[in-house]
Fold this protein.
Amino acid sequence: MAGRSVFASRRVRAWFALFCIGLLLIAVNIIAGRFANARLDLTREGLYTLSRGTRQTLARIDEPITLRFYYSTRLGDSAPAYGVYAQRVRELLDEYVAAARGKLRLETYNPQPFSDVEDRAVAFGLQPVPLDEQGEQVFFGLAGTNSTDDQQVIAFFSPQRERLLEYDLTRLVHNLAVPKRTTVGLATSLPLEGDVMAAMRGRPMRPMAIIEQLRQLAQVETIGAQFDAVPPDIDVLMLVHPQNLPQKTLFAIDQFVLKGGKALVFVDPYSELQAGERTERGQPADSDLEPLFKKWGVRLLPNVVAGDRQDAIRVAVHRPGGGAQALDYVAWIKLHGDDINHDNVVTAELKQLAMGSAGILEPVDGAATTFEPLVTTSPEGAK
């Protein structure tokens, strides 16, 4: 009897152990299914950890997007640094695919000379780079398409833009996920879209270069210098040289920003463009958005322009007795190098920037907003 009792007890323990193992396997499968896309980034810099903005973009994908990564392995063989960078690009693309949960498809190609794959890469608009004196061309780019055959490309992955790699990839995906062009609402009293007075005299009314270039990237809609509300189709509000705006317009701008709208505001302590077109002495040539700037935690120093002896532009000044002398005009400055914030995508690719009678923006003490300068004067700058 004792032997049978011990045997029965062992059988119970064995069945119980098998039951526990079964539960453990079921739990592992559930966890694995739930976190199938979870990946661990062990790099110190978090190279493969996607930002919140990227994840939000990937979550907005409704229709499948196909990414085609064209990389010639011969490039990595000849220049190992490119091989390392290509590995990083590929692994980051894998992170995008995993986070998109089936909405992104990645195809990888190694173009060979005179092949259909090479022809396809060229047709997409990827940039071939000569590898040797014999003229062999290699590729290192990305082409993306959506369900409506819209196309976006990164013609060549330049190592100089490595710090902006995630931004470039996310922008490409966003443009395919949301193919609608951004609508910019332009509010200004300056003749940015052309000189009306010149048109009345029979001369062509040509927009300024900034507007012509902006129209290549976005839909520009003029909404006037003063308005009661920002039109609902406006994605970005562009205020240029706002002067004496009424309370209703200030309220409309504030409401647009509070609801998540984006605003580009250009203010000036002394507009040389407006000053050159004044018809009456004493007309103001400055602009500000002081009521809203105060809420947003920034202020423009009134009646002050930035001067810089180190970055001053040299101009020819006529002498009273005749002739000209070259002098540094400190109110006209050419910013370059460390004067430009190369860690922000807005100014990362700028080599130099010329400015005349530029104003000075400063953060307000105790502001809850973040103030990030994009361009600054040199250490020898002055007010």
